[in-house]
Design a protein that fits this description.
Elements (H helix, E strand, L loop, with lengths): L2 H19 L4 H8 L3 E10 L5 E12 L5 E8 L4 H17 L5 E8 L7 H15 L8 E5 L5 H15 L23 H17 L7 E5 L3 H12 L3 E7 L2 E4 L6 H11 L8 E3 L1 H5 L5 E4 L18 E3 L8 H7 L4 E3 L1 H4 L2 H15 L5 H26 L3 H16 L2
Parallel strand pairs: 3-4, 3-5, 6-7, 6-10, 10-11, 11-12
Antiparallel strand pairs: 1-2, 2-4, 7-8, 8-9
Bound molecules: nicotinamide-adenine-dinucleotide (NAD).
The site of nicotinamide-adenine-dinucleotide (NAD) has 24 residues, from α7 and β7.
Length: 408
């Protein structure tokens, strides 16, 4: 089974189970599961050597009950229709959990961007945009960065979109560079939002941050900023990793220094402490595990070896259904749809700023992010306590209630 299929099945099973527990009829359950639109296409990109390569791409618009579709674009060799659909489904739930006026969508291209030159990457981004331009727009569907896409890629895509449409429409994409209408604080937002959620949680659990050791898997946009900000806030980051492997040091690591090292050496290996594999990182004897890379990394094979007291899901879909069932009574799992919603929350703030043509300072953005994350967290926490259910179940129930109320 491809990894996307697994994530899709887990998300759909949870939606179905939750919807049934809320006594929703089959029609409503179907609308919560079936995407409203699936665009699947192939497109050619001229390579630097004069040849043309063909790529497969998707944009999936899952549900628009609460507003225009919102969701990132992923470039990854293993991206598939099922993966994009799973991520679009999770976006519907996440936007509802975060209290945003959006539905869920997602895009992807099956490509390894590491094998492309900068000019090939630009051409691929522009060609992909030409395929989706008809289906997106600031009040229709608003893409953003995800794995292997970044502000530069959003800039190329927005430029291409505006050329096609003959209109300036900065709010059609979020996660843009500041100079063309990006929001201050957007780059760090997913990591910062994750840190806020961890702080709210340990306040409830009466844990002290000085006592907690944290391992972070994935050292890209999300993992790096989470680790850096958590370190600055006084948490001890004992392990870090990227796709090539990780490092562990019981006394703690400095993520900013680790990033400087990684940039120079193309790997974290040898930075400080002991080299470990990604599998070893997940099974370390630590307090907080923060998966921030790809899906399904916590699964039936390693669930029984996970020792963390808290799993803060900053990646999308890092825990399979089987692993979740095994761990849910032993570990506090903060679900992705809550834990990583800081990114889409600041994307929303970027969209609002772009639509009104009025820009906020970084402090204002971070303050609004904290307020919105606090509201989202409290609602999920309260329901989980009132009904004696997990945070994940509570998040899905809260989201499904909000979405179905808006379904006409
Ligand atoms: P990114 O491309 O910036 O970074 C991904 C990181 O994961 C890189 O450090 C890469 O080396 C590492 N990685 C890849 N394969 C790995 C493996 N097998 N084991 C360990 N590490 C591996 O991507 P990102 O934007 O940081 O996204 C990471 C996760 O967070 C994804 O699940 C994404 O969907 C989710 N997410 C991202 C955002 C956002 O705002 N960027 C928002 C919400 C959720």
């Amino acid at each position: 089974m491809n990894p996307g299929q697994k994530m899709l099945e887990s998300a759909q099973a949870l939606i179905k189970k939750t919807a049934q527990s809320l006594n929703l009829n089959n029609e409503k359950i179907k609308r919560l599961i079936e995407p409203e639109m699936i665009y699947e296409f192939s497109f050619t990109v001229p390579m630097d050597d004069g040849t043309k390569k063909i790529f497969k791409g998707w944009r999936i618009q899952h549900n628009s009950a609460l507003g225009p579709y919102k969701g990132g674009i992923r470039f990854h060799p293993e991206t598939s229709r099922e993966e994009v659909q799973a991520l679009a489904t999770l976006m519907t739930i996440k936007c509802a959990v975060a209290g945003l006026p959006y539905g869920g969508g997602k895009g992807g291209v099956a490509v390894d961007p590491k094998n492309l030159s900068k000019s090939e990457l630009e051409k691929l981004s522009r060609s992909f945009t030409m395929k989706i331009a008809r289906f997106i727009g600031e009040n229709i569907d608003i893409p953003a960065p995800d794995v292997n896409t970044n502000p530069q890629i959003m800039a190329w895509m927005l430029d291409q979109y505006q050329k096609i449409k003959g209109v300036k429409s900065p709010s059609t994409f979020t996660g843009k560079p500041i100079e063309i209408g990006g929001s201050l604080g957007r780059t760090e937002a997913t990591g910062r939002g994750g840190l806020f959620v961890l702080e709210f949680l340990i306040e409830k659990l009466k844990f002290k941050r000085e006592d907690l050791s944290i391992a972070v898997q994935g050292f890209g946009n999300v993992g790096y900023y989470f680790a850096k900000l958590a370190y600055e806030a006084g948490f001890r980051i004992v392990a870090l990793s990227d796709s090539k492997g990780g490092i562990y040091k019981k006394e703690g690591l400095n993520p900013e220094k680790a990033m400087e090292y990684k940039k120079k050496n193309k790997s974290l290996s040898g930075f400080d402490g002991k080299n470990i594999t990604n599998d070893e990182l997940l099974e370390l004897d630590i307090d907080v595990l923060v998966p921030s890379a790809l899906e399904n990394v916590i699964n039936e094979k390693n669930a029984s070896n996970i020792k963390a007291k808290i799993i803060l899901e900053l990646a999308n879909g890092p825990t399979t259904e089987e692993a979740y069932e095994y761990l849910k009574d032993k570990t506090v799992i903060v679900p992705d749809v809550l834990a990583n919603s800081g990114g889409v929350t600041v994307s929303y703030l970027e969209w609002v700023q772009g639509k009104q043509g009025y820009w906020w300072s970084e402090d204002e953005v971070n303050k609004k992010l904290k307020e919105m994350m606090r509201r989202a967290f409290e609602a999920i926490w309260q329901k989980s306590k009132e009904k004696n259910i997990s945070l994940k179940q509570s998040a899905f129930e809260t989201a499904i209630e909000r979405i179905t109320k808006a379904m006409i």
